[in-house]
Design brief:
Helix content is about 70%, strand content about 0%. It is mainly α.
Length: about 180
């Protein structure tokens, strides 16, 4: 996979959020565009799942699951995420460390970066740096701890993490090259 452009990156995070929200809500009408988007990236998303998977995704909290953090940091993670959101003008009506809140925030930042690229107002780099920091610090480590029931969903999350990790690597390289060329 090559690095995504800002439009594709916005599509990645909007699609990730839409899919996890769909699973958390228990299904219903499948988001066909989301399935098609991820299939184009080489990840086939499960279209059927049980109540147990839906509840797992709906109730997953990074603060409960991130055993890579010490207990104090884990307990304060929702507060850190809320502060990160607030600094960006984002307010979540769900727990700050839920998968849906975290992916909604990443989607918002990615869309803001794309919009800034289209406007050409110079804000794109700042927003992309913020997005990169959020992904590296919070979203990727959280996604790496998601272990939904069932082998199919576990493999799906491995694929999703791989795509997010690869794109984040490409984004970091591009931001680093831009910083080097400015210096």
């Amino acid at each position: 996979m090559e690095g995504l452009n800002s439009f594709e990156r916005a599509g990645l995070f909007v699609s990730l959020h839409a899919y996890l929200s769909w699973v958390a809500s228990g299904g219903g009408e499948p988001p066909v565009e989301v399935f098609n988007f991820f299939e184009s990236l080489g990840v086939e998303l499960p279209r059927e799942f049980g109540r147990e998977t839906s509840e797992y995704v709906r109730n997953f909290r990074a603060g409960d699951s991130r055993d890579d953090l010490n207990p104090v940091a884990r307990a304060n993670l929702p507060n850190h995420l809320t502060a990160f959101y607030k600094a960006s003008g984002y307010v979540s009506t769900e727990p700050a460390d839920s998968l849906t809140s975290m992916t909604a925030f990443a989607a918002r930042l990615a869309m803001d970066a794309y919009t800034a690229h289209v406007r050409g107002d110079g804000e794109a780099d700042r927003v992309e740096r913020q997005l990169h920091r959020f992904i590296q610090t919070h979203l990727l480590p959280t996604l790496e701890h998601v272990k939904p029931p069932g082998k199919v969903f576990e493999e799906t999350f491995d694929g999703l993490v791989r795509i997010v990790r690869l794109d984040t690597h490409f984004l970091a390289e591009r931001l680093s090259r831009q910083r080097s060329s400015v210096a």
